[in-house]
Design a protein that fits this description.
heterodimer; A: alpha+beta; 6-stranded mixed β-barrel; two-stranded antiparallel ribbon; B: 420 residues; alpha+beta; 2 domains
Chain lengths: 412, 420
């Protein structure tokens, strides 16, 4: 085998410029696919973190059974009572993959600064759990003021466009009004603790965050609408959903669980869209690279028709000739991929050092473009490029090997 | 010149397979760029119509000066009075590029079915203008993407002011169907709470997940009486063609200011949140794809041409010995490269047309980010883009031929003649 490899390698060196250009073509194709993949890989990670932590969806959301269909219509029927909430939290936290389980409640109503009023959608959250969900990400912190806390229960966080419409800043007072669960109008004083950015234009003018107990008293209830579960690893989401569903059913709590993927409006659509573009780019690049390699190998083989004749005359089999060229193609693919990895790393470093800023669709502020280095993907790409260029070499080689030996020897 | 082209053409035919493979590579590159361009061209067009007609932004929106800054805070100060509204409508209508002028007003409040109440954001619109916009959209585009023309029930009616349209998710939450009754509550402009009875005329799809659970459409007069006012918040202007937007923006601004009404005008581009972002995003991907494909195609063509040139070293020597100049030699190869590029792109145009037809006949359905219903994927045929791309590919392959040809032309004639 060593001997074959050596021969193939020497053959590549025979026409250095042509081999180099082919390798370059393979390298550019490789780097293009690798970089785009690195980009979407990073984008998916980012979107996931935004969904789970930024939007505060957690990994799993436990609602009372039927909430999704009828919860908005008769909210009082589809809430967890205080005992149920405690029980669910206790059961969920028992699992070792679970970081935390926290009760939440949503309030929809009107907020006023005394002069004008506008609608809001607020999530009632437990402040200390909220800190854990948001984690260390700086972007999720309030732009102004501070987060909700347990000391000032009437302190709220307000999305930035809502705050600017109402002309409210951190530290200022306002009134929130909402119908309680049994349909009475209720109003409470509140103070803006902080102003935050939801990251999304559609929600920046409506969203607020309340203290869980504040939201409960505005709705005049002791219940929780949902329990949000945060896991250690997002890969466990599906497994934990089944497990918790079974566990909760067993203790007699009828519930439905949704994952962050189902709840996040943006993630799945963005993913399928980017995946589509990735497949498009990858297949185009692959087709062109194959063409290039077929062309190069076709030329090399044509030039060496006499050699092939000689080899065959000396007793080399059909298969031998194919293997020789296949190895040459594989080498080309391999070296081209190496060039691709170098190009990829080079661009990756440049983007790391000087990240360009852009605004992805649906975002409210520009973000830095990051590209992930995904070794597994690079490995897969190397293997597929080697196989491809081998195939591209075998196609013309088979034709050449079939030639009549005498004809081949006499080829000019 | 004809002689040169003839020679170059014959040279291409000398190694048919190699030329064919190169042409296919060029064609695939060409098609991928042109199809992607046709796709984004269609996507921009669709997004533009969605913004202008779907989101009902119109081409231009006239507000009282300062509305953007202070309008939400003190709405009563930033409205057009009835006389002003009439005056503006009259002034705008004079322009011949304008097809529609319509006053509108926005109301926010809560809507209840008697049991639960949720917030709503409603646009007060004039029913026949609504119909005009839908018709205009359909007439110009020839189709309206699935979901946008669907109203379950009937549209707004002038003679039934309390009839409203409700977005579908909202109707679902409130368990309301066309014909059901409810109550809307909102603050009047002076700050009093006001409530009125409504009847659902129809349920519609806003086309967007974020607004489908909040949006409603009222009759303009109904919205006015809910807000207890005779004023209009804004005036929507529709033009014959979106390309007139910027020109009419300047013209109308001057005209209305001259009439003594202090106003600000916003174009659909500034109003539509999604259009600009989606456009810049797709543009980036397009540029990325464009350069990658060009680079690979360039490399492929250089490869083909340089091996052609190496094969013909002897010929080059002969030509030079017969007195042909270096320039002539470059010309010969340049024309050959250009022809390769030309045939390759012609093949690309054929491939493009085939794919375009296939996509036309069997459109793929997909859900773009931010939309609520799947739409058919369409690819536009943009002749000038195909032409530009063709020129680009011809120039590129000419360059790819000249680079190796120049080195070959520099060779010593005697050595070139003896090359084997």
């Amino acid at each position: 085998m060593m001997k074959w490899m050596k021969l193939a390698f020497r053959n590549i060196l025979r026409n250095k410029r042509r081999s180099l250009i082919t390798m370059l073509a393979i390298g550019v194709g490789f780097a293009a696919i690798g970089l785009y993949h690195g980009y979407i890989h990073n984008a998916y990670n980012g979107l996931r973190v935004i969904a789970i932590r930024g939007e505060g969806l957690g990994h799993l959301r436990i609602n009372k059974a039927g909430w999704n269909a009828k919860g908005k219509l008769e909210p009082e029927k589809y809430m967890f009572s205080q005992e149920e909430t405690q029980k669910i939290m206790k059961l969920a936290v028992e699992e070792k993959n679970v970081v935390l389980a926290t009760p939440q409640i949503q309030v929809v109503g009107m907020v006023t600064n005394g002069a004008v009023s506008t609608v809001f959608i607020a999530q009632g959250l437990v402040p200390k759990d909220e800190v854990i969900i948001k984690g260390d990400w700086k972007v999720f912190r309030p732009r102004q003021g501070h987060k909700i806390d347990d000391e000032t229960i009437y302190g709220v966080e307000m999305a930035k466009d809502l705050a600017s419409y109402l002309n409210l800043k951190a530290g200022m007072d306002g009134i929130v009004m909402a119908p309680t669960l049994n349909g009475q109008m209720n109003a409470l004083d509140m103070q803006v603790a902080g102003v935050y950015d939801t990251g999304n234009d559609f929600s920046n003018d409506k969203f607020m965050r309340f203290n869980f107990y504040f939201a409960q008293s505005l709705l005049d209830t002791k219940s929780a609408e949902r329990v949000v579960v945060l896991l250690k690893k997002w890969e466990d989401t599906e497994m934990m959903r089944d497990l918790l569903l079974k566990k909760l059913k067993a203790v007699g709590i009828d519930c439905e669980i949704r994952t962050w993927k189902e709840l996040s409006l943006g993630y799945l659509k963005m993913k399928s869209y980017l995946d589509m573009i990735f497949i498009f780019i990858a297949s185009i690049v692959l087709v062109i690279v194959i063409m290039t390699t077929v062309n190069t190998m076709g030329m090399a083989i044509l030039e060496r028709t006499r050699e092939i004749g000689t080899l065959r005359a000396l007793g080399l089999k059909f298969r031998g000739v194919s293997i020789l060229f296949a190895l040459e193609g594989a080498f080309l693919g391999f070296l081209g991929s190496i060039v691709g990895i170098i190009l990829h790393t080079f661009v990756w470093v440049i983007i790391r050092l000087y990240p360009p800023r852009y605004i992805p669709p649906g975002f409210s502020e520009p973000v830095e473009m990051w590209i992930d280095m995904v070794p597994e993907m690079l490995m897969i790409l190397i293997v597929s490029f080697i196989i491809l260029s081998m195939v591209a070499a075998i196609i013309p080689a088979r034709g050449a090997a079939r030639k009549n030996i005498v004809d081949a020897l006499g080829h000019v | 010149m004809i002689k040169w082209i003839n020679l170059a053409y014959r040279n291409i035919l000398r190694n048919k397979r190699r030329s064919l493979v190169t042409m296919i590579a060029i064609a695939v590159g060409f098609t991928s760029i042109s199809i992607f361009h046709g796709y984004i061209n269609n996507a921009y067009e669709g997004l533009r119509w969605l913004a202008i007609c779907g989101e009902r932004l119109g081409h231009l929106r006239i507000n009282k000066a300062g509305w953007k800054e202070q309008g939400k805070l003190e709405p009563y100060n930033y409205m057009f009075s009835k006389e002003q509204t009439d005056q503006i409508i009259r002034l705008v209508r004079e322009e011949k590029d304008v097809v529609l002028v319509s006053p509108q007003i926005q109301v926010m409040g809560t809507v209840t079915n008697g049991l639960t109440s949720i917030i709503f954001i409603a646009q007060g619109v004039i029913p026949q203008d609504e119909e005009f916009i839908n018709k205009f959209w359909f007439d110009v585009v020839g189709y309206v993407d699935e979901g946008y023309d669907e109203i379950i029930g009937e549209t707004l009616r002038e003679d039934k002011t309390y009839g409203v349209l409700m977005a579908k998710d909202m109707a679902h939450y409130l368990k309301m169907k066309p014909g059901s009754n409810g109550i809307v509550m909102a603050q009047t402009l002076t700050g009093q709470m006001n409530a009125m009875d409504i009847e659902i005329n129809g349920v519609y799809d806003t086309g967007n997940d974020f607004s489908n659970d909040k949006f409603m459409r009222f009759n303009f007069n109904f919205a006015q009486s809910l807000l207890d006012t005779q004023s209009a918040e804004r005036i929507l202007v529709m033009l014959k063609h979106w390309k007139h937007t910027d020109r009419l923006y300047d013209l109308l601004l001057k005209k209305i200011r001259n009439a003594g009404i202090d106003c600000e005008i916003t174009t659909w581009r500034d109003l539509s949140i999604s259009y600009n972002k989606m456009k810049s995003y797709l543009d980036t991907i397009f540029v990325f794809l464009f350069f990658i494909v060009l680079a690979i195609v360039l490399v492929t063509t250089i490869n083909t041409m340089s091996s052609t040139i190496v094969e013909r070293t002897k010929e080059i020597g002969t030509l030079r010995a017969l007195g042909m100049k270096r320039k002539g030699l470059s010309n010969l190869f340049a024309v050959e490269g250009a022809l390769l590029g030309c045939f390759g792109s012609a093949l690309g145009v054929i491939l493009h047309t085939i794919e375009w037809t296939v996509i036309r006949l069997f459109p793929l359905h997909y859900t773009p980010p931010g939309l609520s219903t799947p739409v058919a994927m369409r690819v536009n045929m943009v002749p000038w883009a195909l032409l530009a791309l063709m020129v680009c590919f011809i120039v590129l392959s000419t360059i790819a031929a000249i680079i190796p040809a120049r080195t070959a032309g520099k060779k010593n004639i005697v050595e070139a003649l003896g090359h084997s």
